Amino acid sequence: MSKHELDARRLMCPLPVIRTQDKVATLGPGDILEVVCTDHGALNDIPAWCRINGHKVLSTTDDKREVRITIEVGHD
Amino acid sequence: MIIQRKAVSLISGGLDSMLATRAVMEQGIHVEGINFYTGFCVEGHTHAIRQRDRDKPKRNNALWVAEQLGIKLHIVDVIDEYKDVLLNPKHGYGANMNPCRDCKTFMIHKAVEWIEKNNFDFIITGEVVGQRPMSQRKELMPVIARESGAGDLLVRPLSGKNLPPTKPEREGWVDRDRLFDFSGRSRKPQMALAEQYGFTDYAQPAGGCCFLTDEQYSRKLVDMWQHRNSRDYELDDIMLLKVGRHLRPRPHFKLIVGREEGENNFMEGYRKQFISLHQVSHNGPLVLVDGTPTDEDITLAAQIAARFGQGKNEPEVEVGITYPNGDSRTVRVEPIAPGKVEDAWYV
Question: How would CATH label the architecture of B6-211?
């Protein structure tokens, strides 16, 4: 298990999802990815993408300026 | 041994692709979704930028549809590849800068590449015969299938009975009798099928999902190309066409005037690429200057900027000017009189 961070600041829907998807494709099951975004829509979109693709959202935080979404990569 | 057949479905986020996907899933086919991002998507960006839209429930409709269907969705960035489709459409444009026929062919071609790479068997779209003037005319649909490289691996379940049998039908992977014969612009058959499938919430019929179908956006795009003497573009260029008022007081420069706080915040990110104007003595919008303005032009730009701020009726407004290299200065200007902002300046 390894931890990674993805800077998706200034990107807007659906680019944060695309960058997350592409990064996750390079990781293995159990790896942790923290995605940092400035588009608050990512709070809906990235968890939705995780649900349909079998990954687990461990936490989300929103300090109004940025959102952070932490994902555990699933199997498959 | 029964082979589990697999299809990829082009998911736009609208009702038709949702229904088409479900119709094939009902036949026991494993379906995954694919969605192509060209950079001209309407919904996500404008909602993300504009403050007034922040309180609206926001969702990416393609992701939402995939979740309703219980399928995976692959979102593919085609921004760079799409440039050739937009700049050199073999079949021209629609009413605005929308190259719908070439766009459809391109996306299906990308889906062909995807199924070859991922060992899927065929492709599904939600196209309906006769629904769209450019890309869904009955005589064109087989042509698009051929030109995209999909050939008879392209199944259009909503109009399948109106089209020649495809390989998945001939091989018995898909039962043609369980496809549909929808045609024309009426939405009633789709709405009835949605009810049958229990879909009560779905995005409104498509057509407004691409900025290239928008007259005002297309005008800004053409204006940008004409005044740069180049039809190339980067993602930042097409993003900035989505925000602000665009005014071109002189051929060699234009102003992008933020309309509200969300747009101003978004435009802040471009201050290292453009000369920017902000009002020091009063509240007012952030203004970006695109082009090659002279010092005299910058003064005019400051006067125009002042017209859109709270000091518009004051005799003088102080405006800060920041250059991409970080240099800055301030000027005191009289806001331009309303009658001197020519209608023709608005792009």
Answer: 3-Layer(aba) Sandwich (3.40)
